[in-house]
Amino acid sequence: MADTFKLTHENLDSLFAALRKDGRRILAPVDGDGRTELNEVEKPSQVAKGYIQTIMSAKDVVFPKVERLLSYTTAPGTVELHDAEPKALPTVLFGVRPCEAKAFGALDAVFNWDYRDKFFNARLEKMAVIGVSCLKADDACFCTSLGGGPADTAGSDILLTPIESGYLAEVLTVKGKAIQALAPNLFTPGNGVDKAAIAAKLEQAFDQPALTAKLPGMFENELWEDQALRCIGCGACAYVCPTCVCFDIQEEADPKQGQRLRCWDSCGFSMFTLHASGHNPRETQSARWRQRIYHKFSTYPERYQMLGCVGCGKCTRACPVDMNLREHLVEAANV
Ligand code: SF4
Ligand code: SF4
How far is the CA of 209 from the CAs of 111, 274, 321, in angstroms? Predict the structure, then answer.
């Protein structure tokens, strides 16, 4: 059960100052160059207003686009290995939407599945999320079809819901309480606000458990081919997605030194599953599109008892050929 408070606009200003005094950087959605993206801010007045979502997700805070895993130097007869240590900065993510806050759980499931990834975990440990509820949604959003919602608390350490005088503040976790403890007087009693009445209204578009149950029997369905006809395999959907975790290991080396890098990749790329033999088990774009759907809505529930999608709609907004994931899932659910 969350502790519920009110946080006025002035007090949020003071909270930002307290967080910075505590040595934390604050990343928040900022408007610039015609788009809204996460950037470092000093005060709430720098935070974008009226945005639905940033285009890119916040996942690179814990899973950077490129990460050095190790480096080495060579001399005749020897190789000296240097372990890389993650640069984990104390970070507060402010203003991410509830769907994106929830997405860190899907990343956590992968990076702590059969191996504890020290890079991911070091960053996650130093990160806290102050989510902000959505007051509006667009036709790419479908969080309510996946068990989430515009004011869902999952994944946030503190969830703020805008109200007239500032915010309703739900302090949800140990990390949230630690933030509150930096300036407890800023949080005043806040019971009696009906946040459901304030948050965006978004109808459930399809029955996800029923879709997940029927996917194993739909593998050969022609639907995947029809849906994938206009997909150009650019990978934009995976790069903006807060839950996509595909990566590739690249080795950069010269005769004297080298480094091993973990780089974002996408199962939508034609070479993602290309074997050295030349065989490609996912040879067509439709096989790759089907993989994307199955991984998020069938493999994830089976392996991690959760979904690999939070219904944020970032993939739909970023797709250059207007593939709308919500519409495609509705279509699949109705087969
Ligand atoms: S962004 Fe669109 S075109 Fe590009 S790979 Fe994803 S679905 Fe295909
Ligand atoms: S697949 Fe699309 S809707 Fe689902 S989490 Fe990724 S970007 Fe969001």
Answer: 25, 32, 28
Residues 192 and 287: their CA atoms lie apart, in Å, by 51
Dmax over Cα atoms in the chain, in whole Å? 73
Ligand approaching nearest to the C-alpha of 288: 1
Q: In the chain, which ranges are continuous DSSP H helix?
A: 9-21, 98-111, 118-125, 174-182, 195-198, 208-214, 223-228, 236-240, 285-294, 300-304, 314-318, 325-333
Give one DSSP letter per residue of 17-83, joined into a string: HHHHHTT-EEEEEEEETTEEEEEEESSGGGS-SS-S--SS-SGGGTS-SEEEEEEEEEETTEEEEEE
Residues in a beta bridge with 171: 3, 158
What backbone torsions phi and psi does residue 4 show, to the nearest 5 degrees? Answer: -110, 135
Angle at which helices 9-21 and 174-182 cross, to 10°: 100
Per-residue pLDDT tens over the stretch 178-214: 999 999 999 998 877 889 999 999 999 999 999 999 9
- Name the residue among 125, 18, 52 with its Cα closest to residue 311: 52
Atom of ligand 2 nearest to the CA of 241: 7
Distance 297 CA to ligand 2 centre (A): 11
Confidence of residue 1 (pLDDT cuts 50, 70, 90): low
Does ligand 1 have an atom closer than 6 angstroms to the CB of 237?
yes
324 ligand 2 Cβ < 6 A: no
- 265 Cα: distance to centroid of ligand 2 (angstroms): 15
